[in-house]
Amino acid sequence: MKRRNIALMILALALVAEPVFAQRRGGGRRGAEGSPGAGSEDKDGSSIKPYDEIIKEDAQTQKGLFTVHRQDGKIFYEIPPAALEKDMLWVTQLARTQAGFGYGGTGLGDRVVRWEKRDEKILLRDVKYTIRAETDDSIKNAVEATSVAPIIKAFSIQAWGKDQAPVIEVTDLFTSDVSEFSPGRRLSNASGMDSSRTFIENTKVFPENINVSVLATYRVSAGQDRGNQPGPRRRGGPRVDPSQSGVTVELHHSMVLLPENPMAPREFDSRVGFFTVGFEDYGTEEQEVEEKRYITRWRLEKKDPEAEVSEPVKPIVFYIGRGVPDKWRPYMIQGVEMWQPAFEKAGFKNAIIGKNAPSEREDPNWDAEDARISSIRWLPSTTENAMGPHVHDPRTGEILEADIIFYHNVLKLCRDWYFVQASPSDERAQQLPLPEELLGELLAYVVAHEVGHSLGFPHNMKASSSFTVEQLRDPEFTAKHGTEASIMDYGRFNYVAQPGDGATLIPKIGPYDFFVTEWGYSQFDAEKEQEQLAQIVARQRDNPMLRFGNPNPGEDPTQQTEDLGSDPVAATTLGLKNLERVAGYLVEATSKKGEDYSLLENMYGELVGQRARELGHVVSVVGGVVRDNVWYGDGDSQYELVSAERQKNAVAFLNEHAFTVPEYLTRDDILFRLEPTGAADRILGGQKSVLRGLFNDTRIKRMSEYQARAGDQPVYTPTELFTDVRNGIWSELNDVPVKTDLYRRNLQRAHIEQLVDMLGSDSESDLPALARGELHTIENLVGRAIGRGIQDAMTRHHLDDVLARIQKAFYPGAQPEAETAATPFGGGGFSEVIEERF
User: Fold this and answer.
1) What count of Cα atoms within 13 Å lies in the side-chain half-sphere of residue 785?
2) Please, what is the Cα angle at 98 between 97 and 99, to 5 degrees?
3) Mean pLDDT throughout 407-430?
4) What is the DSSP secondary-structure string of 457-508?
5) How far apart are CA 240 and CA 829, in angstroms?
6) What is the pLDDT of residues 446-459, one digit of tens each?
7) What are phi and psi of 181, to 5 degrees?
């Protein structure tokens, strides 16, 4: 009897235990197939609860990649079993920011993540593709042994959904400071998230991605450095309130499912410009670790693989977002589709298309944040910029989607640049505001440039130096090729063309753009791909228009920004003529009866800034070396020095134009409308910038090394540079009697101050020695000039002060009188022009 009772008890326990086991393993959900579940914590210590206890009736539910529930300020992810162990890309952005803490639209980083089930936990893993062994060799095991994916966060499974879908709460993932997704120092050194002041704004769920926006507050300590701001710089930006204890921003998290079948990658070639994804490859035959890079590009496949030019299976489509002003929409589409001829060169017809986004009435479910949609967005911001980022698969470089951002004040940027650079050759731009049609053309150019970034193309600063000055003035040449070999350069508008030339003024898709699109997007048989790619690259040898160069203005004058033409001196000569023309109609173009002079002030500043940029292009010629990025067999060398004659001529040009003051910058009809004083300081600031550029430590080191290696080859030496600059800045000392005006006195003091600074520097170059020699030479020249006679009292005071400054530099503890300093040079008296000394 006793044994029978025990057997009955065991059977009863088994019947009771069965539903509990089924709930933990099989689960159910409200209104779904499967058993509904029971109890909360079983004898095994499981804390998994019935679905209905976790996800309540009033939960807001969205279905897509995951099923996302929001209730009581919390977020729950219900993860379909098929989505576990899948690679997903997590992209974090600063969507909106507080004044003084960066700019909206700034990317903060991306990483591949994977959701994994481990017992009653879901692990969010950080999957690294930075080291690989793309081979079947045993080295692959060694690489995998050192590639354990870090655990970002572990979540307890709270319930089971349909088909054993684990339900987890992820609120803390967004409202606490998770370092993998944190802005960190990008928010001007904010110290950490304050969860009490952080809230989830919204969630959006799509078939291939989940987006979460968070209103996040980060603590800021009193006196903390706030200078490290991400994103584009803006003049006159707002000051940060030093009393605030935190910075509040909107963070945007987007998790995108990566393709099940990865795209075939294309290896990077440094001679062709592409954004890339990189990794260490341990599976090659090289006798070292190979740093391998794949280019980022869209997956374009021909509908008809046999056709020379075919429609793509899936074209690249950019939607013009709902927030873009209606009047600019046609120009946005025009800018997108400027790239169509380049893709035809690569074998694709209608490969890239611009479309207006459907209205809410036409498609209420359309959302620019859907990972399947690429768009152009318009942000109401005073930032003068636009950006063309993209999201790509780090495994292969496949671009998955792109959202180009236009800040509203890009209109101002286009207007300002075109007015000071091209208005002399375009009467439409000689009166502000610009006509709407013209501004639309300028916007289309900016769109095409940003679309280029979204296609995988970085800046090519070599392109603007590919055309000669003569070609830039030729209407036929510029109509065919544009004003720079690539729209991905920063050539801006044609400031070289002169009135009456009839040349094109706005950049267009150029020869290099056709070349790079063909190289990156053409389809080849796998066996012939490398051979055919090499044949395309080989065209660079004989055609400079097809060459690529990253920004390198400090070293290579052919890889500068904001420049035009192969000869900076010739281009700037013509550019300065145009600036003088602009100054002639500046007041009339910018001023209206009954309005203030704010537009005049803005455009005068742009005029001064454009002059400084153009003079800076000439500075880069000095000590310059031109790099042509060729590989072995393509040429004898990569580098060629700028000739000594060209460098010397560049310094002579700067003496004539940078170190003198053009009348059009100091016109009373402009300045007295803007300010009582300040012109002299503004001009001096530009001259100091040129001096700093010329006497740059790196430049002097480079020139000294070239001199040491030159042998019989003529080179422009650092000594010649210092001598030529001194002869230009102090040329008045050769006059009898000597007279200096305000602008020259300012410049000469600045020259002395810079030499004194170099004298006391710890530079390892020849700069201190050269500075010492120059100060002695100037000391002698000034002393002799004083002995020959001075025309006015201010000139004498100035030269006495120069001698005192030099003496103080050599003998910091002594304070000699100016007369004593002048004594060694044979006198200190004025000429007969000055009868009395002050």
Assistant:
1) 28
2) 115
3) 97
4) ----TTGGGSS-HHHHT-HHHHHHH-SSS-TTS---S--S--TT-----S--
5) 56
6) 999 999 999 999 99
7) -120, 10
831 contacts 737 by C-beta, under 8 angstroms = yes
Beta carbons within 8 Å of 476's beta carbon, 6+ residues apart: none
SS3 308: coil
**From the CA atom positions of the chain, what is the Rg in Å?**
34
- Cα separation, 474 vs 442, in Å, equals 21
Residue 815's CB: how many other CB atoms inside 10 A? Answer: 9
For the whole model, what pTM was predicted? 0.85
Instruction: Report whether pLDDT(757) > 90.
Output: yes
67: exposed, middle or buried (Cβ count in 10 Å: 0-12, 13-18, 19+): buried
Mean pLDDT of the residues in the chain: 86
Q: Is the dihedral of CA 19, 24, 29, 33 positive or negative?
A: negative
Instruction: Give the pairing of strands 399-407 and 374-379.
Output: parallel
Residue pair 326/497 in contact (Cβ under 8 Å)? The answer is: no
**Range from 10-19, 742-751, 806-815 carrying the lowest mean pLDDT:** 10-19
Contact 250, 105 (CB under 8 A): no
* pLDDT value at 353 more than 70: yes
**Region 476-503 average pLDDT:** 97
Give the pLDDT score at 477: 97
Amino acid at 555: E
**What is the residue whose two structure tokens read 């969630």?**
203
Rounded CA-CA distance 139/146 in Å is 11
Q: Are 493 and 505 in contact (CB under 8 A)?
A: yes
Say yes or no to pLDDT of 146 above 80: no
Residue 825 has pLDDT above 80, yes or no: no
Task: Annotate 341-375 with DSSP letters as a single string.
Answer: HHHHHTTBSS-EEEEEPPPTTT-TT--TTSTT-EE
Coil, helix or strand for 417? helix
Model confidence at 629, pLDDT cuts 50, 70, 90, reads confident
Tell me the two tokens of residue 223: 């006196």
